[in-house]
Amino acid sequence: MKVFIDPPNSMILFDLVERFGHEPLCAMIALREMVNNTEIDMPPMNISLDDVVKGLKYAGIEVPSGIRGRLAVWGPLIEEADAAIIMEDAPFAFGCVGCERSNQMVKYLIKKRGIPVVHVSYPENEEQGKLIVSKIKEFFEKLKEIS
Amino acid sequence: MSEGMETRVIMISPSSHITPDQLTRMIHMSGKKVTVKETCYGCLVEGPSETVREIRDEIRNLDPNGIFSKVRAYPCGDQRRCRAKHGTRPGYAQLETEWKALSYIKIGLDASNRGEKPKEVTQKKQLSVTKFKKICEVG
Fold first, then answer.
1. Between A16, A29, A134, which is nearest B117 by CB?
2. Would you call A94 an interface residue with chain B, using a CB distance cutoff of 8 Å?
3. In chain A, which among 24-63 make CB contacts under 8 A with chain B?
4. pTM of this prediction?
């Protein structure tokens, strides 16, 4: 099962999804293709005009370009996902979560797709760590029962 | 980096007894054709996807719930990211933040393996407007 993780470059979520035997959909895999694609050579990240246009599918022209750029990478992943895990209240430095508007758009797109979602909070103590692991484990067990 | 190649960040939880040196030595000793780079938080492994995943599973045996990994977009020593070539490292702030939280996840995974059920954590409630007004009035 393909699982979208938010924040999309979280190591904690990526690792947990893999541990429970599923395929995480993350920003790193999407960016790897751009970084390593030698057919087009537009350094540093091979961003072409097509990528900017892709973002328009997920956010209007009046939306700041940073949000459109993020959604151009994350949007196709959300479309591909069978389920999603969202981590709330992540600190500012936690991945590319510096933009709250992008986060809201991601949550909206996930809700619009209607895929199963689990919300967990960023771990700040041992009890929260236990809660995150058990919530994600239960989520995958329930998904297995449904499918 | 050609297709089918993968770069992986291997990170050790702060509560683990494993050191980055031990990890790197173990990967070198496995004799698999991969590139390994020792870092302060663990190591970077680059090679064919299947081999990298095999290595991930092997090194997890050292400390099953204390070693974490994720895929990395940039290859090892990439000039755009490598500090030796004055590349920027915007991901470091995130790695540091996540590294601190890994010990909580390790505890969570250990508890899950024991079949322990977690206690419900009470979430902090937002301050009501009336209470906030009272605080302002006192000030």
1. A134
2. yes
3. 26-29, 31-32, 34-36, 43-44
4. 0.88
On chain B, the residues whose CB falls within 8 A of the CB of A119 are none
Region A86-94: mean pLDDT is 78
What angle in degrees, to the nearest 10, is found between the helix axes of B49-60 and B20-29? 130
Domains and CATH numbers, chain A: 2-146 (3.40.50)
CA B93-B99-B103 angle, to 5 degrees, is 155
- Write down all domains in chain B, each with its CATH number in brackets: 5-113 (3.30.70)
A28 compared with A51, residue with greater pLDDT: A28
DSSP percent split of chain B into helix, strand, coil, nearest 5 = 40, 20, 40
More reliable by pLDDT, A44 or A1: A1
Name the one residue in this structure whose structure tokens are 């893999």: A18
Number of CB pairs < 8 Å for A and B?
112
Q: Report residue B92's pLDDT band, with 50, 70 and 90 as the boundaries.
A: confident
Distance CA(A45)–CA(A109), nearest Å, equals 25
Residues 6+ apart with CB under 8 A from A92: A98
Name the 3-class secondary structure at B7. strand
